[in-house]
Amino acid sequence: MVPAVPPPVRPNPVRAYFGNIRRAVSSTFEGMTVTMSWLFRRPSTIQYPDRTEKPVREMLPETYRGLLEVDLSRCTACLLCAKTCPLGCISIETCKHPDGAREFQTFDIDNGLCMFCGLCAEACNFDALAHTREFEASVSSAEQLTVRFVDRPGRLVAKAKDLPPRRPRGSILAALIPGFGRRRRRAAPPEPPASPAPAPAAGAEGPENPEGTA
């Protein structure tokens, strides 16, 4: 009776051994060919941030979603951005000022929790909240990623009828926290001080008197 499944064909062990060696040598040669082709090419890697032509944030598009900032002079404290944020990384608190207006108590943004979706900036009707091109937010602890924009007490909430022009994007973060994770270019080494002029030798004659007088 013929079996339904034919028996497996066992390859020649010697042929399989040398076949594995041939494939290993061939694949190694192909990989080294690609590697050696780049050995004599000019490198395309640029050291960051020391040797870039200009700061990276200046080379990013205007629509780049970097760290959030708010211009409190244009914010009406409508809380729409805080309600739109799906992660709740925006915290706003206001109170009543003695003259009847509203006053900011806190306006905090947790950049460690933010996922940079841009929904809060789209919901702002007064262009007070926006993403910047700042992205260097390296700090020593996660608590330092929370930026507190209320820098002084008594800051009144803006009125929608009279809003000043918006400050340039990124300038608020730079003024609020100048060293917030910013990688600066290495300063050029100072020039060596000029050597003082040699003192005249002792007994040297002074300049001749052009009039010949004593």
Task: Give an overview in words.
- With 214 residues, this protein is an alpha+beta fold.
- It has a domain at 56-176: Alpha-Beta Plaits.
- It contains five helices and five strands; from the N terminus they run ααβαββαββα.
- It has helices at 13-37, 56-59, 80-84, 119-123, 171-176, and strands spanning 68-70, 90-96, 102-110, 129-131, 146-148.
- The protein has a three-stranded antiparallel beta sheet, with no helix packed on it. The protein has a two-stranded antiparallel sheet with strand order 1-4.
- The longest helix is centred in the first third of the chain and has 25 residues, at 13-37.
- Mean pLDDT is 82; it is low at 184-189.
Listing every helix as H and every strand as E from the N terminus to the C terminus, the arrangement reads HHEHEEHEEH
Name of the CATH architecture of the domain at 56-176:
2-Layer Sandwich
Major β-sheet profile: 3 strands, antiparallel
Rg on CA atoms, Å: 35 Å
Number of strands: 5
- Percent of residues in β-strands: 5-15%
What are the SSEs and their pairings?
Layout: H1 13-37, H2 56-59, E1 68-70, H3 80-84, E2 90-96, E3 102-110, H4 119-123, E4 129-131, E5 146-148, H5 171-176
Antiparallel strand pairs: 1-4, 2-3, 3-5
Describe this structure in a few short sentences.
With 214 residues, this protein is an alpha+beta fold. It is built from 5 helices and 5 strands, in the order ααβαββαββα.
